[in-house]
Design brief:
The chain has 471 residues and is of the alpha+beta class. It has 8 helices and 29 strands. Strands 2, 14, 15, 16, 17, 18, 19, 20, 27, 28 and 29 form an 11-stranded mixed β-sheet that branches.
């Protein structure tokens, strides 16, 4: 009888233990988090080449509008030839060579001439012609005499972002000679030389007007904007981190001026807006033109972002153990232990609770697949499961997680690429449009940080900015 009582007591104790185990919540101790001392992904300088095209028709129209239709001048002396001239012009013709802008002006002119062979100085200091002055005209009360003038201008941008201009008078020709027939004296060459002096003075004024156009302040405003975080929902913020500019010399095709602008920068994508002090604009570095761009962009992704991806992969995953089921409710990255991620898996069902796991993330650069390798329970969780006889449940959870531990990142990358391309296409300002063609975005490297997962990506493509001066 006593023996039977003892057996019943043992059986009841075992049943009670199973009942208690079936009802209790599994919750091991929180693991200790640490990160081993290792180099982070150091920022690398990339070069973004932007081809800029400027439609100059609007500039030409403004030059035509601001250039006088008539201009006058004179040269006066007692002895010899004195004259007054008046020039009128036809519409200005603009054309280009590969490296220069050509301005050609044609029209007609008239001269009012006088001639004195000899002058003397009177007692009062005044000069007087010894014979009556002879008067004549050319192009007055008759068809004006034709002329052609042609300027060549070379434009550039100095290293301190100031517009430079070098204009030279290449040609000034009077088509029809102006001759004082009664003296058989051709004044054409003399008039050409005198007028050339004024035209060369005009070319200096043209350069001064061009160089007075303020461009540095505009560039500095753009430079300041480039240092702002650019939201790229839902991925976070794009930080350019600009370092310097460079530009090539202007080249021309028909009515379009072309040059290449290069931005040297260390781009980064973060889940929070970066707070960095303003970096002043540095001197421009001369560089040759480069076709398209291939840039390295660092992505600092908080573990919350990775947690969101993992939760989407594993949420409501059913794990069956001998006909009983538990459901995965959340899978979150809570930090690191050395070179491994620490995951917290929350579940309910016939068991409810949480466990902590560790894994080593590995990136397949060729396939763009993130794999969680060496999945195991964190030491405190492993000890808890063994002591509580929950090792069978633990192994089942680990095996199910391992089955889905490969995450194809290509879909997320293609979505991010499309978002970036949409941000880099369209009007930038009135008359300024950006055209981007992004080829590929790929993951290149992966490093664990204390609070972030650092990923280096490679982005390739082309960007063009078209400026219409008519606007």
């Amino acid at each position: 009888m006593v023996r039977m009582y003892r057996n019943l007591t043992f059986i009841n104790g075992v049943l009670l233990l199973f009942v208690l185990m079936a009802c209790k919540t599994i919750e091991p101790s929180l693991p200790e988090l640490s990160i081993q001392n290792r180099d982070k992904i150091e920022p690398e300088v990339s070069r973004l080449n932007v081809d800029v095209e400027v439609n100059m028709n609007g500039m030409f129209a403004e030059a035509e509008k601001s250039t006088p239709l008539l201009f006058d001048g004179s040269s006066s002396s007692c002895e010899g030839v004195s004259y007054t001239y008046s020039f009128s012009r036809e519409p200005i013709s603009f054309s280009t060579s590969p490296s220069q802008l050509e301005t050609k002006i044609q029209g007609g002119f008239s001269l009012d001439l006088s001639y004195c062979p000899l002058c003397i100085t009177l007692w009062n200091g005044k000069e007087s012609c010894t014979v009556p002055r002879i008067y004549a005209s050319c192009g007055l009360n008759e068809k004006k005499r034709g002329y052609t003038m042609r300027y060549l201008t070379t434009l550039g941008l100095s290293k301190d972002y100031r517009l430079t201009a070098k204009t030279e008078l290449e040609e000034f020709t009077i088509k029809d000679p102006c001759e004082l027939t009664f003296l058989n004296y051709d004044v054409t060459e003399r008039v050409e030389k005198e007028i050339e002096k004024e035209l060369k003075t005009m070319q200096t004024k043209m350069d001064e007007d061009i160089e007075s156009f303020e461009v540095k302040s505009t560039i500095e405003k753009a430079w300041k904007e480039l240092q702002q975080s650019i939201p790229i929902a839902p991925y976070g913020f794009f930080q350019l981190n600009p370092l310097s500019f460079s530009t090539t010399d202007l080249r021309y095709e028909d009515q379009t001026a072309k040059f290449s602008l290069s931005l040297f920068f260390s781009p980064m994508i973060t889940t929070e807006p970066a707070m960095k002090p303003y970096q002043p604009l540095t001197e421009m570095i001369p560089k040759t033109r480069m076709e398209g761009f291939s840039i390295l962009t660092d992505v600092a992704s908080s573990y919350d972002t990775l947690s969101s991806i993992l939760s989407n992969e594993f949420k409501d995953e059913v794990i069956s153990i001998k006909g009983k089921e538990i459901l995965v409710r959340n899978l979150k990255v809570i930090g690191c232990q050395s070179d491994k991620l620490v995951l917290r898996l929350e579940f309910d069902g016939f068991r409810k609770g949480k466990v902590y796991m560790v894994c080593r993330p590995e990136m397949d650069i060729e396939k763009q697949v993130l794999t969680l390798k060496d999945i195991d329970f964190e030491l405190k969780t492993k000890a808890f499961l063994l002591k509580s006889a929950e090792w069978l449940l633990g192994n089942r959870i680990r095996n199910e997680i391992a089955k889905k531990a490969k995450i194809d990142m290509s879909e997320n990358l293609n979505s991010l690429l499309a978002t970036l391309e949409s941000k880099l296409n369209g009007p930038l300002a009135p008359g300024v449009n950006v055209f981007s063609d992004l080829d590929e975005l790929r993951l290149n490297a992966l490093v664990l940080g204390k609070t972030h997962l650092y990923i280096r990506t490679k982005l390739t493509g082309k960007v063009k900015i078209a400026i219409d001066s008519n606007e």
